[in-house]
Design a protein that fits this description.
The protein is α+β, with helices and mostly antiparallel strands and 93 residues long. The model has no long low-confidence stretch (mean pLDDT 85).
């Protein structure tokens, strides 16, 4: 079983409507999973946020991509944990 991030891109971002100094946006992540010989590729659009205020574009981009990476790490940990606790049925001897 493998879970790998193939690529990611920042789709859009802008100031939050109600919270000053907060930037929100979306990151599209392309993922490839291999499980029991089957390869599946799909995209996830993750909502992201950062409390960075008025900073240069590159810093906003880094903050939002960092938030997406944090979300992906949590997803991967849950995914791996679930797989470790699942057991395939075993035939009786």
């Amino acid at each position: 079983m493998s879970f790998e991030v193939v690529g990611c891109q920042l789709l859009h971002f802008g100031p939050h409507k109600a919270i000053p100094q907060r930037i929100t946006g979306a990151v599209r992540v392309r993922i490839r999973e291999t499980f029991m010989g089957n390869i599946t590729q799909y995209s996830l659009d993750l909502p992201v946020k950062a409390d960075c205020g008025h900073v240069p574009h590159d810093q906003v981009r880094t903050a939002l991509l960092t938030h997406a990476a944090h979300q992906l790490n949590k997803l991967k940990a849950r995914h791996t944990q679930k797989l470790a606790t699942d057991h395939l049925p075993v035939a009786a001897e």
